[in-house]
Amino acid sequence: MIQTHCIARIKSSYEDFSDKEKLIADYVISNPQNIIHSTISQVADDLGVAEATVFRFCKRIGFKGYQAMKIALASEIVNSMDDIHEKILVGDNEKEVAEKVFKANIRTLEETLRIIEQDHFKAAVQAILNATKIEFYGNGGSGSVAEDAHHKFLRTGFHSVAYTDSHLQIMSASLLGKNDVAVLISHSGSNKDMLEVLEVAKNAGATTIAITTLAKSPLSQGADITLYTVSDETEYRSEALSSRLAQLSIIDALYVNISIARKDLMKHTLTKIRSAISLKRL
């Protein structure tokens, strides 16, 4: 598991926290400087909770304990700029709303780029390059990302397909083999359909790649390779909606890496596709 990105982990898991965990989370996000200069006893006293509750919170977000969280948080404060989150207000005019939406989107992409792990991303690229077939799975908003991925990867010359129907997902995953790759896209990482597909694809011998939020989830823990996204939730803009931009960008980055590695074959494929598409134009 990633042992940095403390604030991003807290934000990604926030909606699944208990009331006491949310109390601690709010304190950490609002007072990071206090945390790095306080003991676990001082934090527990400030919040009126037991030290064990604070310790379990640290474990919940992926750290070995309070000290490990402090180190990660201190590094995060030193190495990143303060992030001012502008909330969309009822009285904002149309341009102000647009500006805040654009800034939030930019922040989502910047934070996701910051947490990309070189080893994980390289492993995903190599798995795809060695694959006979790539299948993309997603439901709801993530389904549109899966279809976009299929649309892109067709151009690389790979046998690519996308499924957004849960029954077709299971059926197709059962026919995968050891030389195939299944890419599962889910913001929460706990979507029941995606977890069923993950199990079927793994049993079939395929390499599984998950694109999901930076949080401890069944999907992130079960996939062979996990690529994380980060996004914030606001009153008018759900976390799942903003994460779609990060998911699309990860797909784009994978696609460009594959295109570079297969540039000769891709040129041949694109020539055939463009020739066929030209028939659609007047």
Can you describe this structure?
With 282 residues, this protein is α/β, with parallel strands linked by helices. The chain contains 14 helices and 5 strands. The protein has 2 domains: 6-79, Winged helix-like DNA-binding domain superfamily/Winged helix DNA-binding domain (Arc Repressor Mutant, subunit A, Orthogonal Bundle), CATH 1.10.10; 114-277, Glucose-6-phosphate isomerase like protein, domain 1 (Rossmann fold), CATH 3.40.50. The protein has a 5-stranded parallel sheet with strand order 2-1-3-4-5, with helices on both faces. Strand 1, helix 9 and strand 2 form a beta-alpha-beta unit.
Summary tags:
282 residues; alpha/beta; Arc Repressor Mutant, subunit A; Rossmann fold; 5 strands; globular
The number of helical runs is 14
How much helical structure, as a percent, in the residues? 55-70%
Low-confidence stretches: 80-84
Which class of the largest domain in CATH terms?
A: Alpha Beta
What structural class is derived from the secondary structure elements? alpha/beta
- Strand order across the largest sheet: 2-1-3-4-5
Taking the sheet with the most strands, its summary is:
5 strands, parallel
Order of helices and strands: HHHHHHHHEHEHEHEHEHH
